[in-house]
Amino acid sequence: MPRYISYIVTSVTVVLVWYAISLQIGALLLPDPVSVLSLLLTEAGSARYWAHVGASSWRIFAGMGLAFIIAVPFGLVVGSNPKINKIVSPFISMSYPVPKIVLLPIILLLFGIGDVSKIILIMLIIFFQVFITSRDAARNINKEMILSFRSLGGNKLQYYQHIVLPASLPGIFTSMRLAAGTAVAVLFFVESISATNGLGLYIIDAWGRADYTSMYVGIVSMSLLGILLYEFFEILERKTCKWKHTQ
Amino acid sequence: MNSSKNLLRVENISKVFPNGNEEKVVLSGINIDLAEGESIAITGQSGCGKTTLLLIMAGLISPTSGNLFLNGKAYSETSNDIALVLQDYGLPPWKTVADNIRLGARLQKIPVSDDELKNLKSQLKIEGLDHLYPHQLSGGQRQRVAIARILLLKPKLLLLDEPFGALDALTRERLQKLLLNIFRRRGFSFIIVTHDVEEASLLGKRIMVMDSNGGGISTTIDNPGFLSEGYRDTQECFERVKQLREVLKASD
After folding, report:
1. Which residues pair with B65 in a beta bridge?
2. Residue B210 belongs to what domain range?
3. In CATH, what number is assigned to the domain containing residue A130?
4. CA B90 to CA A147: how far, in whole Å?
5. Whether pLDDT at B125 is above 80
6. Is the alpha carbon torsion for B192, B197, B198, B202 positive or negative?
7. I want to staple A198 with a disulfide (CB 3.0 to 4.6 A). Which of A55, A172, A227, B170 is the partner?
8. At how many degrees (to 10) do helices A199-208 and A165-193 cross?
9. What is the pLDDT of residue B3?
10. Rounded distance, CA B49 to CA A210, Å?
11. Could A153 and B80 be called an inter-chain contact, meaning their C-beta atoms sit closer than 8 Å?
12. Given an 8 Å threshold on Cβ–Cβ distance, is A144 in contact with B86?
């Protein structure tokens, strides 16, 4: 089944289930999808709504982009150098289990309530997932392929270009897809605590005013942001890892 | 052997690996002289150090002691004159056949003409596969691609580590014939490591048997008739295989 058809089928199913639950528990708690989607269309015509969407999108793209730019090369270098890995791994093992979200007060104290603190927190949380995946992918490259490549006369830089990076890309994109969900959750948390704009604030503000239809517009918008991110990395993986998708 | 035609000299090579608090001697006192245009098959039981020896000759791992010379010049690292073919082909799965074939030439900045590439593919019967990825090929096709990639580099010495070990009997026989045909035409030298005594008899002008308990070369057998037509079905080949089996049993 083509992907767009499976998306349409899934969306229609979600809307129908949503509608059925809304009928069961009442529109006060769960407004029906038609009201939410029509308000979403109305909001889509307002600059205020797009300012919220723009602020959230910027934070999430910047946070994930920074995590990607820093974690991927670092992970690949550490993974393909056992000596460096031996030095770095204890620090990672010690710092990875620390819930980075508890650092939020410190980050807010250091960087204020603007975009920087939110981007840094998203980056910090995503960094470890992407770093560990990149490192492990580089570490698990088939030994015979490494020997074979070296015997062909490839230097260190060419080794990263022709072997390490392409071998690790599928794992990296999987981790970025998984990280997209985490990033949206973190974004909601930080925007609901300290923000002057963004979809997290939009949701909490509507919730505070007991305007549940608007609250669901925010929830749907944030979900769409997560889905778009997920699809972006899916498409990127399909474009750059064609070999994984051939029979 | 004429010393001016000597291509590779392996001089008193030994290799010791740490094994807990002890040391495990994998190779000791290995000496090999290989002339230009000659082939050697090295055989022995699993774990006797055949592959370690080949990787040392390829410059991929360092010996604990001893020296290596190529055309009279000492070397300790990989050389563009030496190429290696491994059992699992070493083809990056993310590169198409066309990219895999050209990989070595690209790395070494060797210009390759379209005609040369076309002839090579025709010789190895891998035409029309350019756009495919390694997982879309059969084992035999993959090994042909790996050989094509190496031949494009025009190495003086080809090192093969159980190159046909994972293939079915018929494909293995075809590729052994193909290797000998190319060897006749191109005149490079090769050393093949194999645990298959029949393969050793078919491909080696000299056959070296390694000690099973990590030592050196226990026996060297001359096999001058290996290139003759239909050698596989001759009494000489049969006798050679029998002789090798007996030597291997004795070295166990």
Report:
1. B14
2. 1-80+193-252
3. 1.10.3720.10
4. 8
5. yes
6. positive
7. A55
8. 30
9. 46
10. 76
11. yes
12. yes
